[in-house]
Amino acid sequence: IKSIDRAHVLEHSCILILLPRNYQNPLINNELCRTQHYLLAYVWADDENVREALHIKKGSIDRWTRCNRSIAYKKDVEDSFGYHLNFSRKESLRALIYSGDQDMLVPYVSTADWINELKVPITGEWQPWFVDGQVAGYVTEFKLLSYHLVYTTIKGGGHTAPEYKPRECLAMMDR
After folding, report:
1. Lowest mean pLDDT among 28-42, 47-61, 97-111
2. Number of H helices, E strands in the chain
3. Alpha-carbon distance 157 to 165, whole Å?
4. 66: which residues sit within 8 A by CB, 6+ positions away?
5. CA-to-CA separations, 33 to 2, 17, 38, 98, 106, in angstroms, rounded
6. Nearest by Cα to 12 from 26, 29, 27
7. Can you tell me the distance from the alpha carbon of 175 to that of 170, in angstroms, rounded to the nearest whole number?
């Protein structure tokens, strides 16, 4: 299981090697590892012109880091279930929850189980939705009073579904 990319089970599991700060032209082999494309983000975010345009104070950040885990965030919301449970009982709210079906970090079946625990009645059974005549995923709708929840899977999507399936995710948002 170590060789499986948990963010997308059908992609190669690769290690992102950070380049020296003065490296300007990353060679990208787009056939192998998605993480190689992240090198462009490092080069872009560390560019002095970009930093100036974003008003990043000189000396405040040495190098940009994708998914920086060293920042001391206050994690005061460990689980959003209670919020959705509260919303589902009294709020006029529309919510969209989506999952890539190739995500092993937060599997779509776990998300479906979480939603079912809300005990909100299903108003639209699990059915396919389409983009350009092709199945783009599956959707289930739930409604209780004025709370309306739509749960959608993105076929072929990984942990960050819009990264893997941007066209399908845009179509999902436009629905």
Report:
1. 28-42
2. 6, 4
3. 6
4. 38, 41, 42
5. 16, 12, 10, 24, 21
6. 29
7. 9
Asked if residues 122 and 140 have their Cβ atoms less than 8 Å apart, the reply is yes
Q: List pLDDT tens digits, range 53-78.
A: 999 999 888 888 877 777 777 777 77
pLDDT of residue 124: 94
pLDDT of 13 above 80:
no
Q: What are the pLDDT digits (tens) for 31-44? A: 556 666 777 788 88
CA distance 102 to 161: 9
Angle at 86 between CA 82 and CA 87, to 5 degrees: 115
The set of residues, in sequence order, having a beta carbon less than 8 Å from that of 40 and lying 6+ positions away, is: 26, 28
Stated length of the chain = 175
Residues in Cβ contact with 105 at an 8 Å cutoff, skipping those fewer than 6 apart: 6, 7, 159
Pairing assessment for the beta strands 147-154 and 134-144 based on DSSP bridges: antiparallel
More confident residue, 16 or 30: 16
Q: Report how far apart, in Å, the C-alpha atoms of 65 and of each of 43, 62, 94, 129 are.
A: 11, 9, 34, 36
**Helix, strand, coil percentages in the chain from 3-state DSSP, rounded to 5:** 30, 20, 50
